[in-house]
Amino acid sequence: MIPESVLKLAEDIKAMRIRGAGRIARAVAKGLAEAATAYTGDSLEEFNEYIRRVAKLLRETRPTAVSLPNAISYILSRYKRDLEYIERVHEARESIITHATEFIKYSLEAVKKIGIIGSHMISSGETILTHCNSSTALEIIIRAFKDGKDIEVFATETRPKCQGYITAGILKRNNVPTVLIPDSAIKSIMKKIDKVIVGADAIAANGAVVNKVGTSLIALAANEASVDFIVAAETYKFSPVTVLGELVEIEERDPREVCSEKFFRYKKIKIRNPAFDITPPEYIDIIVTERGLIPPQAAILVLSEDYGWIIMDRMIKLTSALEE
Ligand code: RI2
After folding, report:
1. Is 62 in the pocket of ligand 1 (CB under 6 A)?
2. 253-268 pLDDT, tens per residue?
3. Mean pLDDT in the chain?
4. CB-based burial, 210-222: b 16+ in 10 Å, e otherwise
5. Which atom of ligand 1 is nearest the CA belonging to 131?
6. Which of 11, 161, 196, 302 is the most exposed, having the fewest neighbouring CB atoms within 10 Å of its CB?
7. Of 211, 204, 247, 251, nearest in space to 232 by CA
8. How far apart are CA 251 and CA 277, in angstroms?
9. Whose CA is nearest to atom 5 of ligand 1?
């Protein structure tokens, strides 16, 4: 039986009570560790089957942020390696908990490092624009401010769920001068902006960035106004399956997030609510990762370094399927 706390965690991710690509990744790592801890049986086979079910439940909560499946594969691929010498359930449990804890630590440190690296790119007197609520982008901005840089930040509302309000609140709590603007004001505000800094939910092999809907329009406006467009992302947000041509699924959310149910029911108006969009690499100046600055065109290098084995495995499976 999957523990209540893990079922609740999955529900919280679905309902976006736990949200943000990095936070989701750490939450699923925590979920796997909790599930392993709660297992009381003594069959290794049964434990593996149970962990597979938990991983599936967590993987299916939200489709776009690749940090989620990447966190699961980080833990399970290492667990699989450990299985060569694991004989008892308590060792299996220990392995999952160790690798989940390791991932969470890596993730938190990565965000800190991105803050340090990215803050060097901001100069005193600059005006920054950010979209949605990215803890990674905020780490850069707040770090630069705490380093004594005199900056001002414009935060978009980010309709329909308005996560920009969270961003504005966090900036305010950190005393960063902040202005909240409606998404539709982007074009006219852009002339005041020196740098755009956003987060990412997924980065494809060609360097395209999947982030909260509206990001690509901001990139377009930034490009037209020759404003730097910077993406802040940990390397576990790079999507290995895109190397083989798979597309990142864009989450389509409930229309009731866009307008009241009464309106779309009675007026019989069709409403779409895509939660993310894709910014092409040509509009991105640089991606700040925990390993340093990466031009979007070099995304494939990060992927082959980290996920070479997954990519090879998939390629082999694909080739043998074609040969059958
Ligand atoms: P960090 C969020 O997705 C936003 O799109 C944000 O830009 C991205 O995750 C990255 O967030 P959602 O979960 O990992 O709000 O930088 O849909 O916090």
Report:
1. no
2. 998 899 887 777 777 7
3. 95
4. bbbbbbbbbbbbb
5. 7
6. 11
7. 211
8. 9
9. 212
Q: Which atom of ligand 1 is nearest to the CA of 198?
A: 7
Residue 259 known to be catalytic? no
271 C-alpha to ligand 1 centroid (Å): 23
Omega of the bond leading into 281 within 30 degrees of 0 (cis): no
Ramachandran sector of residue 181 (left: φ over 0; alpha: ψ -120 to 50; beta: rest)? beta
What's the DSSP call for residue 149?
A: -
The answer to whether 132 is a known catalytic residue is yes
Contacts 24+ apart (CB under 8 A), 270-275: 273/160, 274/213, 274/250, 275/64, 275/212, 275/213, 275/250, 275/251
Domains along the sequence of the chain with CATH: 4-112 (1.20.120.420), 120-312 (3.40.50.10470)
How much is the pTM? 0.94
Q: Is 212 in the pocket of ligand 1 (CB under 6 A)?
A: yes
If you measure from the C-alpha of residue 157 to the centroid of ligand 1, how many angstroms do you get, rounded to a whole number?
14
| Cα 182 to ligand 1 centre (Å) | 19
Segment 25-50 mean pLDDT: 97
Is residue 134 in contact with ligand 1, taking CB distance under 6 Å? yes
- pLDDT tens digits for 180-205? 999 999 999 999 999 999 999 999 99
